Amino acid sequence: MASIIAGVGSSHVPAIGAALDNGRTEEPYWKRVFSGFDKSKQWMAQTKPDVAIVVYNDHASAFSVEMIPTFALGCAAEFPPADEGWGPRPVPVLKGHPELAAHITQSVILDEFDLTIVNKMEVDHGLTVPMNLLFGTPKEWPCRVIPLAVNVVMYPPPTGHRCYMLGKAIRKAVESYPEDLKVVIFGTGGLSHQISGPRAGLINSKWDKSFLDNLTKDPKKLTRIPHIDYMREAGAEGIEMVMWLIMRGALDDKVDEVYRFYTVPASNTAVGHIILENRRKAAAKSKRAAAGRSKQAAARKAAHRIASKGRR
Ligand SMILES: [Fe+2]
Prior knowledge:
- It is built from eleven helices and ten strands.
- The chain is an alpha/beta fold.
- The strands form two sheets. The chain has an eight-stranded mixed beta sheet with strand order 6-3-7-2-8-1-10-9, sandwiched between helices.
- Helix 6 (about 160-175) packs parallel to helix 10.
- The radius of gyration is 21 Å and the shape is globular.
- The structure holds fe (ii) ion.
- Fe (ii) ion (FE2) binds near residues 12, 59, 189 and 240.
């Protein structure tokens, strides 16, 4: 059976991608940002998911203003990086998981969430930047990816509550998929930022930190935040944070926060990052550790028996 073992929240600031692609990661300004993800890369290398479901928003790369689906699930076999004006980012093409994506689509739509099925789609920095932050810059991505594009660019975006409930439906879908797959789900975007208008440059660290605290401890509280509060407190583009609630809805009610990072600014955005593990994952980990310990103890006993026989 497939299972969602953990959730990752990460900003997807386009300038982070540009810093990576132009070899600027060692500059002090960018080192501050990238070093916050060193532990995350280690965690991801140890976790080794088979599939990453990446909740992100398209920035007029795959969809124009002519057509903006509220929730669009990528069911294709692969997703090339989009040309965002300077050519596609030099990152590998992402391999999809069409079978699991089709299964999620069926389960979630029959649970009355009207997903748009997307069989051909390019993906922009909203998806590729968090992939780099968690997986580095490999020649091939080490896991399959299922993109879930959410409309947060044209009013009305979905409510936080709707996002949270969609996360629950996705979890149910994943857990009814028969193949043994380890799945990690990403919520991306935010945190507070506003890129235009008289309030351009707005960052609200107090709001961001409270959002991260509640994401771990009281996500239901976050589901009651109306759009206008995101706009007022976190800036016009702060509304991207509702996407983190899809990730959170797909996890256990009680989770272990294993890592958090927050820094201001990257470009004109607050960078937030969190890793939340389902407790079942932690339980499985300690079961494996206990099994390892008893194996070692048995090996020690056997060695002792052999040594005692030798002495006799
Ligand atoms: Fe964005």
